[in-house]
Each structure stands twice: as C-alpha cells, then as structure tokens.
Specification:
With about 450 residues, the protein is of the alpha/beta class. It has twelve helices and 25 strands. The structure holds flavin-adenine dinucleotide.
Length: about 450
C-alpha cells in the first residue's frame, strides 16, 4: 500500500493523515478538501465572531507549512464529486478543472453540514446565516462590519445557539434566542436548564422556547421572522443553528452503506462496508461505550480519535475505537455547562433503572475568596449501582470541565457510584474541598439509593 487518499481536511482528516505518516513515513498521504482552510478549529468560530480571538488565522491547529513538513500533500479547493470503488478512483472538481485521483486506500472524513430546516421559508434571504465553515464565519463577520446590525435572532437553543448568543451579545447586538424545545439546552435536565435560562436573561438575551419559526422575510428593510404562537421578531441578522447532518453524498456515490441517523456505517476499526474505504468524524455513526451500540454524536473530540484510528488501520493496523460517552462542555457568559453519559430519561429508555440525585455545593472552601456554587446531577443505576451519567453547572472558573471528566473517566472504566465517592482526588482550600464536589455528589447519590 503506497497511496493513501483522504477526503476532508478538518479534525478527522488531518488526524488520519498525521497518524498515517507516523505509522508509515514512506507512504504517500494526500489530503483533499473542498475549501482553503486545512486543519482549522471550527469549534473556535464563536470566539472569533465574539471578537475574543481577533485574528481568524489563530484558529489553525497547525499551519499549512507544518502539515507540509509532516510530509502531507495538501489539495485545497478540491471538491470530490464521486467515488468509484471498483476502479479505486475519486472524481474531483477544482478551480483548475475536473480530474480523477487514484488511491490504494481511501478515508472519507467529509464531516457534517448545517441542518437547513425544510419547513422554514426564506432561509436564503440575505442576512440569514449558518455557521459551519470558515466561509460562514467570514460572511457573518463581514455582515457585522459592513451593516453594523444592532439585533440578531438565533434559531436553535442547543450548544451552538448558546455560544453564539454569548458571542453576538459581546459584539453589542441585542439577541433573541428562539427554540423548538420547551427548555433551553436540552442536553441537560430542565432543573439545570433553568440556570442556563437565568444566565441568558441576566445578560439581556430574550429567550422564546417552544416556538417553531415558520418564515423569514423582509419588512421595512429589516429581517422579519414569524413563528408559532404569534412569535415575531424584527432583526438585522438571523443565525440558523438547528444542528448538523452527516455529509454523505460522496459515500452514497460509491455505494458505501449508511447506518444510524444516515451517517456512514463503520465498525470500531473505522472500516466502512466497502473494502479499502475507511471513514471517521462527523460523517460516521459513533460507537457508544456504555450502550454498546452506534449513535450519531458529532463532536470534535470524537473526530480526532476516530481519524487517528482510521489513519493507522488504513495502513494495516487493527486498532479499535474505544467509544464515546457524549462528554461535552460549553461556556456561556460566566457559566460552564457540562455533561457525560446518560441522563435519567435516556437511561430509562435504554432499560436501566436510573436514579438521579442533584447536589449543590461550594467548588472550594468558601472561606477562601472566589468560591461559587456548583450544581451536580448524578445518574446511577439503582439495581447495579453503576454510574450512568453526570451533569454539572457552575461558574466557568470552577473546574466544571475537569470535574465532568472525572465522571467520564469513571463511566469509561465501568465504575460504581460508591467507588467514585472513594476516589483519591486532590485538595487545597482555594481549589477544592477535602471531599471534592464530585465525591460529595456521589455520596449524596449513595445516601439516597441505599437509605
Ligand atoms: C460552531 C461550532 C462549534 C463547535 N464546538 C465544538 C466544541 O466546543 N467541542 C467539540 O467537541 N466539538 C465542537 N464542534 C463540533 C466539531 O467542530 C466537529 O465535530 C468536528 O469539526 C468534526 O470534524 P470532521 O473532520 O469530522 O468534519 P468537518 O470539520 O465537518 O470537516 C469536513 C472536511 O471535509 C471537507 N469536505 C466535505 N465534503 C468534501 C468533498 N466532497 N470534497 C472534498 N472535501 C470535502 C471539508 O472541506 C472539511 O475539510 C463545533 C462545531 C461547530 C460548527
């Protein structure tokens, strides 16, 4: 095998290329990508748009030169339009014309695209944006600079909607956040969702939940959005942040079988159903470690790991993806909000006997300045005592992310809640308590479960 072709130059594709070069330094590795921004952190786009990261170039995980130094051949502005596995070629269109590229092994890392809700009329109205690619963020930045909008509507109250509500507020826009679901950020339970709502309102974000936006048009030179229940908003910018869908057009052209949620079906070695073709990242279904089945959970953390495995296995390796727990965290104004594993409702649907206990405690000894309250929800199985999931909300400088990672590590290693309580965790008064909040919440769960 001497010719590895990778389609997609973001988290999964570049991770695959770097790993392939480590495993086989003599192998020819080519990465083709539809745009001109290889290896950029799209997770950083909200922080570029907020102005916190003034120069978009800073979002590059690695520069183009660094990638070239690693021996990776880059083909930016090359869009693959079809895969022909029987001939082992990919059909490409680029600014210099059409061509075909041959391969010995192929990795599909085509990612995802913003979901465009079909029922909303007027999504192509000027001033309506999506956020997925560098080009999307440049279009939004340009609109803000040229037209100095004073108000924005964000459709979608998931994590990208939250990050952008924060970002556009920082840019001085009056933000309205509208969402389909009854409470904001439904990745956490409603009791924590209420704290998220309070943080949005504290920062003057107008929130409308349980509203279905039906139409966007222009009235008196401004954008007008109309939705269910008499919802109306007249604004200068609309951002549609209603989720992502796996980008699988190319896979379909090569008859690569699809699986959960229409994503590319892969096994844990990141092999697709077509010999010689691997896939990784937001375009594939993802093995859930706790549920032992595949779901669609597109995250940057997952894309990096799967990419490395695809890169190694495409060159003959036998590595298996260990699985996701859906661990995630986001920063919203002064809050950090995190979750891992399953919540109560998800666990019940999967046949567990969940018990969820919420605890509130100080993040560190409150005689030391700067202590904040943390809200932690622990979900465990009543029958077996195993930890199933956790959610945490608190001030963003109170170690929320690292504490959710302790829970994630415990679930990853199939620990019981009572074992979490006994972990040997660190302590100094400015940073924790003799019993860390993770342990206090595990202890509260055990007290409720075993009383
Ligand atoms: C605003 C935002 C914030 C996010 N924040 C976080 C976060 O904080 N934490 C987290 O874990 N995740 C976050 N994510 C998700 C994370 O960015 C994605 O999971 C990750 O980028 C997926 O990487 P990928 O390589 O699979 O796909 P993508 O990043 O989608 O890249 C796909 C690549 O394929 C190329 N491509 C597609 N089709 C073709 C074609 N036909 N021909 C050639 N090239 C093609 C594209 O040009 C691109 O290079 C965020 C996403 C967004 C949009």
């Amino acid at each position: 095998m001497d010719n590895l072709l990778i389609i997609g130059g973001s988290d999964a594709g570049i991770s695959a290329a770097l790993r392939a070069r480590e495993v086989a330094p003599s192998c020819s590795v080519t990465v083709m990508l539809a745009d001109d921004y290889p290896n950029y952190s799209i997770c950083g786009l909200p922080f570029f748009l907020s102005g916190e990261i003034p120069d978009w170039r800073a979002l590059a995980h690695r520069t183009r030169e660094e990638l070239l130094r690693q021996g990776i051949r880059l083909l930016p502005d090359h869009k693959a339009t079809a895969v022909r596995p029987e001939e082992k070629i990919v059909v490409v269109s680029s600014s210099s014309g059409g061509k075909t590229l041959s391969y010995d092994r192929l990795i599909l890392a085509t990612g995802a695209a913003s979901r465009k809700p079909g029922h909303i009329k007027g999504l192509d109205t000027p001033g309506v944006f999506f956020l997925r690619w560098m080009a999307d963020s440049f279009a939004i930045a340009q609109h803000i600079e040229r037209n100095t909008p004073t108000s924005a509507l964000i459709i979608g109250n998931g994590y990208i909607g939250m990050e952008m509500a924060d970002a556009l507020t920082r840019r001085g826009l009056a933000v309205t956040l509208v969402g389909h679901s009854q409470h904001v950020l439904k990745t956490v339970d409603p009791t924590l969702g209420r704290l998220v709502l309070a943080e949005l309102e504290r920062n003057s974000v107008r929130v409308a939940s349980g509203v279905d936006v039906e139409e966007i048009g222009v009235r008196d030179g401004r954008l007008m959005a109309i939705g269910s229940g008499g919802f109306q908003a007249q604004v200068d910018l609309v951002l549609v942040a209603t989720g992502a869908e796996p980008e699988v057009g190319l896979a379909k052209s090569g008859k690569v079988p699809l699986g959960y949620g229409g994503a590319i079906k892969v096994n844990r070695r990141m092999e697709t159903g077509v010999p010689g073709i691997f896939a990784a990242g937001d375009c594939v279904e993802t093995w859930h470690r706790l549920l032992e089945k595949s779901l669609y959970l597109p995250l940057g953390t997952t894309a990096h790991k799967q990419g490395r495995i695809a890169g190694e296995n495409a060159l003959g390796g036998r590595k298996e993806y260990a699985g996701t727990l859906g661990t995630q965290v986001l920063k919203l104004f002064d809050l950090a909000i995190a979750r891992t594993g399953l919540n109560d409702a998800e666990a019940r649907l999967e046949g567990f006997s969940p018990l969820t206990v919420e605890t509130e405690c100080w993040d560190h000894k409150n005689y030391y300045p700067g202590a904040h309250r943390l809200h932690i929800r622990v979900t465990g199985d009543r029958t077996t005592g195993y930890l199933l999931g956790a959610q945490i909300i608190g001030h963003w400088q109170t170690g929320v992310a690292k504490r959710i990672d302790v829970f994630a590590t415990a679930i990853f290693n199939r620990m019981k809640v009572e074992e979490v309580e006994q972990l040997d965790l660190s302590y100094t008064p400015p940073l924790s308590n003799p019993w860390d909040p993770v342990q206090m919440s595990a202890e509260a769960w055990c007290r409720t479960a075993y009383q």
